[in-house]
Each structure stands twice: as structure tokens, then as C-alpha cells.
Write a structure and sequence with these properties.
The protein folds into 2 domains: 66 residues, Winged helix-like DNA-binding domain superfamily/Winged helix DNA-binding domain (Arc Repressor Mutant, subunit A, Orthogonal Bundle), CATH 1.10.10; 140 residues, Four Helix Bundle (Hemerythrin (Met), subunit A), CATH 1.20.120. It contains 9 helices and 3 strands.
């Protein structure tokens, strides 16, 4: 039961951090989390220890738990890792990408309509597409790294995303081009497409976050 409660506490806290319900630099007390999750101190502490190992929180003795800051340096490192890994996966594992799921995402992306629901729908499809491409890689160490990177990327997207509506529309079009190249088996072109897509996304995310006065370090 304690293990189950630990897992529940871990998933709830992590989910709220990624969704920025617990924003960067926010202090979280054990008492608050116990009440929020309806769990005892032990599973909360075990969940926080795991989240600290993954870099989502920092446990400060006699002070409490703080949600890890998200700085421009972290944003740069996130995109640096993606620019190294995602084109590599296209080059070496593209034939293992699930084309049926690519077609499903393509169809949903085609039918995105700018408006109130566009932001949430685009973010969901963006996350699904990039995770699908990375899942074609059979190297578990790369997969584990990318899972963590995409979790951090969701924090970046939420903090920056609503300020860059036009970028989302352009990115959706870039997704369609990328998926079309994957469906055609054009490996070199697909790798170049995902590289250009990530560079543009990085540029716009940093511009938006600078406007929000995000710290450098």
C-alpha cells in the first residue's frame, strides 16, 4: 500500500510540476502535500526523494522543498540535447517509427483550427509526435534521457507557449512536412526538417521567456 501511495504521490506532484501548477521556485511544504494528495508523510517524502533525483525539486534541510528553477540556461540545454538526439534517431531508427500512428497524428494536425482549443490540442499533438519518434529508438539510455527532456520541455512550453500563438501555427505546418517526409521514407530530408523545426522552436521559446524576464542561470 505504501508503495502504491508513493507512486500516486510521485505522479501527482510530478504532473503538477510539469503542468506548472507548482511553478518554478515555488516552496512546497510536506504538510501541504500531505493534505493535497491525502497521503501520510512517508510516501510524500519517498516521492520527493525520487523527484529530487530526477531534478524536479530540491530538498533544502530545515527549509522545505522547492520546485527546481527553469532558467534560460536550462532551456538552452534542453534544446541542445534535443538537437543532438532527435535528428540522430531519424537517421538511425526512422524505419521503426509507427507509420500508422504518424498518419493518425497527421490527420489530427491537418484539422487543427486556430482558436480557443488550438493551443491545448497543438501541445498535445506536439508532445505525442516527438515522443513517438523517439520511441522508435531501441537504446534505453537515449529513451530515458528523452523522456526526462520532454517532461522539461512541457514546462518550457507552458511558461512560454501562450505568448507565441503564431509560432504554434507555423510549428503545426512544420510537423506536417516532417511527417510527410517520414511517410515517404526520406531520411535525410526528415532529419533536416526536424533540425530546422527545433531551431525555430528554441528561438521563439527563448524570445518569449526573455520577455517574461526569466533568469539566465
Amino acid at each position: 500500500m505504501d508503495m502504491n501511495l508513493k507512486n500516486i504521490a510521485y505522479e501527482v506532484i510530478k504532473g503538477k510540476i510539469i503542468a506548472c501548477e507548482y511553478r518554478p521556485n515555488t516552496f512546497l511544504s510536506e504538510a501541504f502535500l500531505m493534505q493535497e494528495i491525502d497521503a501520510s508523510r512517508t510516501p510524500i517524502r519517498e516521492a520527493l526523494n525520487k523527484l529530487e533525483q530526477e531534478g524536479f525539486v530540491q530538498i533544502i534541510p530545515k527549509k522545505g522543498v522547492v520546485v527546481t528553477a527553469l532558467s534560460l540556461n536550462e532551456v538552452n540545454m534542453t534544446f541542445e540535447a534535443r538537437l543532438l538526439l532527435e535528428p540522430y534517431i531519424i537517421h538511425h531508427y526512422m524505419e521503426f517509427i509507427d507509420l500508422h500512428k504518424i498518419r493518425e497524428i497527421y490527420s489530427q494536425t491537418e484539422h487543427l483550427v486556430p482558436g480557443e482549443e488550438f493551443y491545448a490540442d497543438f501541445c498535445r499533438l506536439d508532445d505525442t509526435l516527438h515522443r513517438l519518434i523517439s520511441s522508435a529508438c531501441s537504446n534505453k539510455f537515449l529513451n530515458e534521457s528523452l523522456i526526462h527532456i520532454y517532461d522539461q520541455n512541457n514546462r518550457i512550453r507552458i511558461l512560454a507557449g501562450k505568448n507565441i500563438w503564431q509560432r504554434h501555427i507555423e510549428a503545426a505546418k512544420e510537423h506536417l512536412v516532417l511527417m510527410d517526409l517520414i511517410l515517404q521514407g526520406k531520411k535525410e530530408e526528415a532529419a533536416e526538417s526536424i533540425t530546422n523545426h527545433l531551431i525555430k522552436s528554441k528561438t521563439e521559446a527563448i524570445r518569449s521567456l526573455i520577455n517574461e524576464q526569466m533568469p539566465i542561470n
